[in-house]
Amino acid sequence: MTETPTTEPEAAPEAAAEKRAAIPLRKQVRRLFTQLGPARLATTLIFLVVAIFVARMSWQLPLAGDAERALYDSRASLTAQHVGQDPRIVMITYNDETLFNTGIRSPLDRTLLTTALANIDAMGAKAIGIDILYDSPRPDDDALKAQLRAMKTPTWLAYLSQSDNPTTIQYQQQQFLDAFLADVTTARTHPTSVRFRTDEDGVMRNWPDRPKGLPPLMANALAPVDKAHADYQGNIRFRLPARADAEQEEPVFANIPIDSFAIPMDDETRAGFAELVRGRYVLIGGDIVDNDLFTTPLSRLPDLQTGEREQMIGLEVHAHMLAQQLDGAWSNPVPGWGLWALALLVVIAGGLTSLIDLKARWVVLIFIAQMLFFLAYPFWLQKIGVDTTGLPAFGQALGWLFGFVAVGSAARAVGSRQRAFAQSALGKYLPADVAEQIMRDPEQLSLHGERRNIFCVFTDLEGFTKLSHATTPETVARLLNAYLDRLSDVVLSHGGTIDKFVGDAVVAFWGAPLSRPDDGPQAAAAAIAMYEAGEKFRVDLAAEDVPPLGMTRVGLHVGDAIVGNFGGEGRIQYTALGDSMNTASRLEAANKSLKTGVLISAEAEARAKRDDLVPMGRVTLRGRAQPVDTFTPRPDLSADQRARIAEMVAAHAAGDKNLYVTCATAVGAEFSHDTSILFLIERLNETESGESYVLS
User: Fold this and answer.
1) Which segment of 49-58, 410-419, 589-598 scores lowest on mean pLDDT?
2) What count of other Cβ atoms lies within 10 Å of the Cβ of residue 297?
3) What is the C-alpha separation between 493 and 11, in angstroms, rounded?
4) Which one-letter DSSP state was computed for residue 235?
5) Do 52 and 287 meet the contact criterion of CB atoms below 8 Å apart?
């Protein structure tokens, strides 16, 4: 074979990374449980249990509970329904201007209320709720009592119990309130509970419970409520004005100063005002600065008009609760078992995410998708009417993180053991990318042997035995190591696995422990590069005072072999066994007879994807009965020259004697000094169509 330097491009690291196979998640989980060790496994499981607890119970945990409440308020604010003004409910309020005009601040002017009630009662209101406590006397009490007893419209008066509100009402106030309500209670006038319940941070988020002994809650009292929700304690569905983003805002509930109704009215005047209350639920109370104000989830966002986080008067809270009841907009919470299931799932998701073995971009996408899920799904639940006051959104994110850290730490511990195993098992006979993959997944380095389709390469250095007898052992060792280093570098740079060194011979294969789509082209390129490296070594050695070396002969074949670790308990060797290995070895030896440097079987040639190979005829190798069609690389020839040789061999195989003779005559004349081609013609002349030349 004529030496022509060629350079084979090495695969870029990025390309190699693209080709590496991902480790199945199921395999990683199984490995984690089987290789982690009892102590570390127990620690990991305890950490995961804590993660599940945090993901479920974060509302009850310090700091985490504050985060949960803040997140809920954000959900309630951002998903709140934007509505026009509710035509069913109207608020009639004492405001600061009213107090200034009457000169009475506390208790509120009851004469004003008496006149307003008389007018409203005649206007056809559906029901009246008064959120004012009558817990201390006023000179005008008798007139108010008379009006309350005379009411034709169902009227409900605020009531609180000292036992439930010890800081709001004192004993004497309780006594007066009980007596006042007892004096005015009729078939139309009744007491109603105005008891609220705020969370630990003072925010009004949920309907209060109904202690025994208290009258019905104002919203329940004013309008009928279905029995299934008579004791509803879920979240209050606060609503926002539909035109909150415009220059002028229309409030959800009309708020009319009580002064408008506390004037003497004739029938005509009363008819004009009646449109404001007829058929509506009328709520009467105070809208006074720094009095009866509540922080709600809506306070988390600043008002679009004022830019401030405004509190809500208690009367408006009652209005929102009444509207929610009228709409039947009850929110159902996620059941307890569902929260436990979600906690378990998010922790598992975090743990499995730490084990994902995919390309970086896919890992990032999976991570981002999960983060978006944690962020979005609580808002979606809130939007569709699920009560998320108990949903541990922040806790689930923490649980995911704990699961990710716990399982990731355990996986790293297992990985360190696997790397130690892989490093001791691999040595230096695997290419860098394959070694990296094996270190990530040592199970791919089969410990039992498996059938694989591999490309086998055998080499031999002609004249090395003579050199070893003619020089010192130190020189032999130095030259041999230098030679094997060159060939080993070729194998590894082309993605091959070094099977063994037998003296000066190198045995390598492609397709195990990892198989890749380009194994065929890489193996063929490596076979040629190994021949060229041997020739370069021979040239370099000529400058030394040692006997000359011959060429490096290379054989390449592809076929099935049993690949794996073989040996005993104390020593194993990763190798390949089978007829394909023997065939490659015989091809290497056949180079001497065929006067070539590299011989490639037809099976390997079909997958080599090279256009510089020429057929060298069909031969029967020593020790084998099955003939092999052979090829050799001839990059020194032109494409036309290679085509003429191929045409000659094809004509012989087809039994076309006339064409064969014509081709052989022309090729023989053209390659009169090429021993390999001349010997090819000689062999074809000695065999009939389809026969093989038996190598002696």
Assistant:
1) 410-419
2) 23
3) 8
4) B
5) no
CA–CA dist 441, 28 (Å, integer): 9
Other Cβ atoms within 10 Å of 451 Cβ, number: 12
Q: What is the DSSP string of 275-303?
A: TTTTTSEEEEEEE-TTSSEEB-GGGGS--
DSSP 419-461: HHHHHHHHTTSS-HHHHHHHHH-GGGS-SS-EEEEEEEEEEEE
pLDDT at 490 > cutoff 60? yes
How far apart CA 639 and CA 553 sit, in angstroms, is 24
User: Considering just the CA atoms, what is the radius of gyration of the chain in Å?
Assistant: 46
In angstroms, the CA 319 to CA 86 distance is 10
Nearest to 507 by CA among 526, 520, 532: 526
Q: What percent of the chain has pLDDT over 70?
A: 86
What pLDDT does 277 receive? 92
557 confidence band (pLDDT: 50, 70, 90): very high
Residues 441, 212: Cα–Cα separation, whole Å: 66
Helix (H, G, I), strand (E, B) or coil at 117: helix
563 by Cβ neighbours in 10 Å (0-12 / 13-18 / 19+) ranks as buried
Counting DSSP H helices and E strands in the chain, the numbers are 23, 21
> What's residue 425's pLDDT?
52
More confident: 456 or 546: 456
CB contact at 8 A, 45 and 37 = no
CA nearest 53: which of 40, 43, 64?
64
The H or E element that residue 128 is part of is strand 127-130
Q: Is pLDDT at 225 greater than 80 in this prediction?
A: yes
State the sign of the Cα–Cα–Cα–Cα dihedral 593, 596, 599, 605: negative
Q: Is 256 helix (H, G, I), strand (E, B) or coil?
A: strand
Contact status, residue 586 vs residue 621, Cβ threshold 8 Å: yes
**Token pair listed for 255:** 């708020």
Range in 66-80, 160-174, 368-382, 474-488 the model is least confident about: 160-174
Q: What share of the chain is helix, strand, coil (3-state, %, to 5)?
A: 50, 15, 35
Please measure the distance between the N-terminal and C-terminal CA atoms of the chain and give it in whole angstroms. 21
Residue at 140: amino acid letter? D
Cβ(483)–Cβ(544) below 8 Å: no
Q: Which of 400, 395, 361 has the alpha carbon at shortest distance from 378? A: 395
Whole-number Å distance between alpha carbons of 479 and 466: 13
